Amino acid sequence: MAPPMSAASPFPAPPSLPRCHALLPCAGTGSRAGAPLPKQYQPVAGRPLVQHTLAALRGVPRLDRIVVVLAPDDAHWPADIDGVQALRRGGATRAETVFNGLRALREAGVPDTDWVLVHDAARCLVTPEEVTALIEACAGDPVGGLLALPLPDTLKDEVDGRVARTIERRHKWLAQTPQMFRLGELLDALSEARATGFEGITDEASAIERTGRRPRLVEGRASNIKVTYPHDFALAEAILRSRT
């Protein structure tokens, strides 16, 4: 992990060689989860959901630091979590929150050539092994990449609630996180997209794709779901309890 933070900056002095930083956008309200708390703070297997996510990331030796970007008025984040740096710079959208977090890293002196792994706070079932596999696959890549899953099911196109056609599923992947790109390239890509209100930017890879580059797909696991709907919590709890 990184050395202790100085009083002058929330981030340690940058090293000369590229390192890996995890960035979690954690400013959403989780309205689709249908719960009174933002979904990242809903209890799952005895702990807030986001703490399971952070525990997995803290188990990755190649991550230099973990940064969580919160809403400015977040009242649920605990005062301190060992090994995690919190920034209250969340935006109105996920893309804006990631952009603000990346800009904070650059302003603090983190080199543009360092890698940033952006991970959904609600993907609490990711494992250290999956994250390590992504790092190993992308560390020497000229673009970077993301965890993803080859589409296992038949895919249908819909019109007015009825099947319009069956879509060929070969070469179709379900994007997951983390998504790993160099700080400078991802920040610049999001800065370009910001001019149009981040229209069409659904993840970090889509921002990189708009610049003409092709991110690497690294096969992940089906268990790395994004907890979104009420029934997802029961599934996540069952998987977490089975692991312990």
From TrEMBL:
The record marks 169, 226 as: Positions MEP for the nucleophilic attack. GO terms for molecular function: 2-C-methyl-D-erythritol 4-phosphate cytidylyltransferase activity. PROSITE patterns: ISPD. Its EC number is 2.7.7.60. Pfam families: IspD. GO terms for biological process: isopentenyl diphosphate biosynthetic process, methylerythritol 4-phosphate pathway. Keywords: Isoprene biosynthesis, Nucleotidyltransferase, Transferase. It catalyses: 2-C-methyl-D-erythritol 4-phosphate + CTP + H(+) = 4-CDP-2-C-methyl-D-erythritol + diphosphate. InterPro entries: IspD (IPR001228), IspD/TarI (IPR034683), IspD/TarI_cytidylyltransf_bact (IPR050088), ISPD_synthase_CS (IPR018294), Nucleotide-diphossugar_trans (IPR029044). It is an enzyme of class 2 (transferase). Pathway: Isoprenoid biosynthesis; isopentenyl diphosphate biosynthesis via DXP pathway; isopentenyl diphosphate from 1-deoxy-D-xylulose 5-phosphate: step 2/6. The record marks 32, 39 as: Transition state stabilizer. Catalyzes the formation of 4-diphosphocytidyl-2-C-methyl-D-erythritol from CTP and 2-C-methyl-D-erythritol 4-phosphate (MEP). HAMAP family: IspD (MF_00108). This is 2-C-methyl-D-erythritol 4-phosphate cytidylyltransferase.
